[in-house]
Structures are given as structure tokens and as C-alpha cells.
Amino acid sequence: MSSLTLVAHALTPALRGLVLGGAPDPDPASVEAARQLKLDADATYAGPEPAAVATAEALGLTAVVEPALRDRDYGEWAGRGLEDLLGSDPAAVSAWLERPHTATPGGETENDVITRVADWLGDLVSEDREAESASAGSSRLVAVVHPAVVRAVVLYVLDAPAESLRHVDVRPLATVNLSHHTGSWSLAFG
Questions:
Q1: What is the pTM of this model?
Q2: Cα–Cα distance measured from residue 33 to residue 92, given in angstroms and rounded to the nearest whole number
Q3: Distance CA 34, CA 68 (A)
């Protein structure tokens, strides 16, 4: 495999309002902005959120929906705004924000998300090796996902601990390029 471009999906009301989880439709202006991005792909994947699928379509790409690329599971906190949660249980929210290796009630930890995307990347490499053997070429892949998934992939590729989460800011429609060589992933600039 030669490249994988991650695209953070279009802005949603949940992202704007700091609401955890949920699957709202994307902001129309943000989807329109996605149409301006120029990406070419041999294969495209999308998280199951409507915003990820709509963003892929706006890019002119037909995506395979991949459940492993879903947003973090926030459990009992899903659909609730951060300010609301801070008002109702500030100690629990503060602990969760300070220690991303902890889970929300009934949800996933950041390490769970990193493990999930690492497994997907491993499966992707295996599938791509088989395809390269058949076609004798490399491929350009695109994955349109929630910003939390982009962040998890970056942490995995850099072998950074989950505590580094707060140092990775991923905005809607941001792109991150990766390359895979000799068994490992790297950030690819240029």
C-alpha cells in the first residue's frame, strides 16, 4: 500500500455544540466546502455516521461503510453536551477529561478506540497486500471519519499514549496523509 488519506467529516451540530456522540446530519455549508477538496482514491471507506457518508459523497467518492471507523462510544453520556455534563457531574467529567484511559459510563476509553483503528489498519494492510499481488500496483485509499477517529489513528501511528489526546486538534474537513512501508505506518507530509 502506498497511501491512506484520512478526512475528518463535515461539521455537525454536535461538533459545534460539544455534544458527545450521536449521529447528526452534517452542516450543509460544511458539506459544500467538502466539494472543494480534491481527492482521488482507488478505494474509499467511511465511518457509519451520516456526516461521514455525506462528506465522502460530497468528495465525489463512493465509500464502503466500515463499522470499525465509528466515533468513540460515549455510553450513557452519548448525546449530551459537555457543558450539561459538567453541570451535572463535574468530578466525573473532569476525571474523564484528565485521564483518557478511563471510559465514560458504559462507553469506550481512548485506548479502546486506538486499538479498534489499529486492528482496522492491520486488516487494511492484509487486504491491500492481496490486491497488490493480484494487480502488481500500489493503492490510494481514503477514509472519511469522525475527528475522534482521525485523532486515534494519529496517536496510534505516532505510538503516543492516550494522554496525548488533548494535543491533537482535528477540525472538520482536516486531512491527514499516511503511508505504509515495511510493516509500519508513517505520517506523510508533502
A1: 0.92
A2: 37
A3: 23
